[in-house]
Specification:
Largest sheet: 7 strands, mixed
Shape: globular
Strand order of the largest sheet: 1-10-9-8-7-2-4
Number of helices: 16
Radius of gyration: 21 Å
Number of strands: 13
Strand content: 5-15%
Helix content: 40-55%
Order of helices and strands: HHEHEEHEEEHEHEEEHHHHHHHEHEHEH
């Protein structure tokens, strides 16, 4: 069975990380080297995670309580949790699903006198033009934060230079993963200084915590090979366990209680060392092959199963979603054919604030409910994609009957 996703990390990277968990390293020097490699201009910041960086950013911005932060309507729940913790109000802006971007009309409708920031997310590996958001937000004095957690495409692109901040993730299932860590670009030096000062007061992530992550994800990488993955799914079925929930739980970033205590830590030396290695050894050819697979699959899709954002010129196909009339039925058909599709459990739709039902992000809500993520990565041959496309076409035709 083809696993839904493969970790973008090699066994030599695991060995490097394991070795550095026991080696004494100058964490301050590593931090400076990583941040300089990321941004020679001095506007970079290394954090434990995007969640950590976003929390630092909101602390440094010092927005008045009750201020509104406008979000792309599809995000992860923890981003909303952080906004609420800071006494702010999240407001959704609906999406143009074909381009995976907020429509200008939606943005104009949601920006009001209480709006202080817009968080625009590039989803599933795609990248949409952010200039329209800048043009709407800048005249109103609204800050623009670019959420690039799903859109890393190599060190040559660090987000739009005019956004106030760009947030990139190197979490466990991300492109060029370091099994954690985030790199930010912050435009305002004063805000960046506040963030650095605040982060310096945090405890450092214990090396033992990072060691456990390395061991856990090395096991998950081993499980993702087709024969072993097939055995895992079969074992879960025999034990009446939901392998979907099991995998999603194993890859959650910050599960359990004490969320803010756990994100408010500095990255450990072995994490920074591995992050530096991933930046230095980034191979764009791997991303080219993944994009090639994604565009090949998009060409094979039936019209009844559109792939959001597939036509965008900048797309690395970190994930490959399609919109299905009956997601459950499609997932079962794909799994029967050896393709482990999933609806995923990590994304949510930003709810409307009380009394603002006119801002309900209907398109995003309907789209997320229909979304099915397909396996699509360089290890899959053209023949595998064609076989999966045959299942998709058959299910699409049955749905039309």
């Amino acid at each position: 069975m083809w696993a839904r996703k493969r970790l973008d990390i090699g066994w030599s990277d695991f060995a490097f990380g394991l070795a550095h968990c026991s080696l004494p390293r100058d964490r301050g020097l590593l931090t400076r080297r990583v941040e300089t490699a990321w941004s020679p201009n001095g506007d970079g910041l290394a954090c434990l995670s995007v969640r950590s960086g976003f929390d630092l950013l909101l602390t440094a911005l010092r927005l008045p309580p009750g201020s509104e932060v406008v979000f792309s309507a599809i995000t992860i729940p923890d981003m909303l949790r952080i906004v609420e913790h800071h006494g702010l109000v999240a407001v959704p802006m609906d999406l143009d699903v074909t381009r995976l971007s907020p429509s200008r009309e939606s943005l104009r409708r949601v920006i009001g006198p209480s709006t202080r920031a817009v968080v625009a997310a590039h989803l599933f590996g795609s990248r949409f033009p952010i200039e329209p958001i800048l043009e709407e937000a800048r005249p109103r004095g609204v800050r623009v934060i670019e959420d690039c957690a799903q859109a890393y495409a190599g060190p040559s692109w660090r987000g739009h230079p005019e956004t106030d901040a760009s947030l990139f993730s190197f979490g466990s299932i991300k492109t060029a993963t370091a099994l954690g860590g985030a790199l930010l670009r912050v435009r305002d030096p004063e805000i960046l200084d506040r963030m650095r000062l605040r982060q310096a007061s945090y405890p450092v992530q214990p090396a033992s915590d990072f060691l456990r992550r390395l061991l856990r994800y090395s096991a998950l990488k081993a499980l993702s090979s087709r024969p072993v993955y097939r055995l895992l799914v079969s074992a879960c079925n025999s034990l009446e366990r939901d392998h979907d929930r099991l995998i999603n739980a194993a890859t959650r970033g910050f599960p359990g209680p004490g969320f803010f205590e756990r994100i408010r830590r500095q990255p450990s030396a072995p994490l920074l060392a591995l992050l530096e290695r991933r930046l230095q050894r980034f191979d764009p050819r791997l991303l080219d092959r993944r994009e090639d697979r994604g565009r090949a699959l998009a060409r094979l899709l039936p019209e009844a199963l559109p792939a959001p954002g597939a036509e965008l010129p900048h797309h690395t196909f970190w994930l490959f979603p399609v919109l299905a009339a009956d997601p459950g039925r499609l997932i079962l058909a794909l799994r029967s054919a050896g393709f482990d599709a999933t609806q995923g459990q990590s994304l949510t739709v930003v709810p409307t604030p009380p009394g603002r039902s006119d801002l309900d992000p209907v398109v995003a809500r309907q789209s997320l409910a229909r979304m099915v993520h397909l396996p699509c990565y360089p290890g899959m041959r053209e023949a595998d994609l064609r076989r999966m496309a045959e299942v998709l076409r058959r299910e699409a035709s049955l749905a039309d009957e």
